[in-house]
Amino acid sequence: MSSWWEPHRHADRRPALLARGRIKKAARDWFEGRGFTEVECGALVVSPGNEAHLHAFATQAIETGGGAGRPLYLHTSPEFAAKRLLAAGETRIFDFARVFRNRERGPLHAPEFTMLEWYRANEDYRSVIEDCLALVRLAADTTGAAGFRYRDRACDPRAEAQWLSVVDAFTHHAGIDLLGVLDDRDALATKARRAGIAVADDDNWADIFSKVLVARVEPKLGEGRPTVLYEYPRSEAALARASARDPRVAERFELYVCGVELANGFGELTDPVEQRARFEAEMAEKQRVYGERYPIDEDFLAALSHMPQASGVAMGFDRLVMLAAGARTLDDVLWTPAP
User: Fold this and answer.
1) What is the pLDDT of residues 72-115, one digit of tens each?
2) Which end of the chain is more exposed for a tag (fewer CB within 10 A), N or C?
3) Chain center to CA of 45
4) What phi and psi values does residue 180 have, to the nearest 5 degrees?
5) Other CB atoms within 10 Å distance of the CB of residue 8
């Protein structure tokens, strides 16, 4: 296979790359027109995040005089830094952040990519959901795309979105009453097997939930129109606050277009005690599965005590560009794809 820099290959990719620039400019103008401030969160962090199945690139900071290095990581998201900025007094911020995730490579994944992340202080998480839908329409209008397509799925980015709770999605697409099996691993395993999902003996509740979601639910989302999948079980929303409507679920959503997950957002958790407990549980699971854990960012937990209620979202900017430009893979919309 030819390299991305070879002239004929670059010529094929260049229209999508130019579309990327137009979409980025339009998005920046959109945010600034609504009173947002663009920020630039640093990539080096003491903890890359505390989610069990999120993997980071590790490095060391060596002082001028040499000696033992201090462990640092490349961030997997600007989230911890952005929330510190909210604690400092910022109210509407956005960041086109370069982020890094290990163990991720494929048509929809890259080890280095751009995450468009933004926050609204003192605003409900439905506000950032509406932001997401507006940006999908904006990307389509910027490129002139009549519709989006990925593989065999098509979606009208301007159509009214489908709003679907996770509980309803599991009922409709997998025949599983999710609330009836919350925290009951064996009951969920039985229902998953009846739905044709292979369950391993060492799969825990979260593993089984994820298998059902990927195999039975996600392929049905974002067909014909965008889908907002919302109200995840609290155990599957480590950084989101519990729903006031039903404390068994959390204010977490994901946006799907053509079966592709474009965004993941929350009504943000601001209780440092609960956040620490969730982080510790996630790191215990990471230790069990992968034999490693990441440190807990104590300064971040301290900032949570000062952070206002807020909503926030992370959008895969490269995926949005890929769909709007009609590209086949993420590499087709990255100026210099990772080796």
Assistant:
1) 999 999 999 999 999 999 999 999 999 999 998 999 999 999 99
2) N
3) 19
4) -75, -15
5) 7
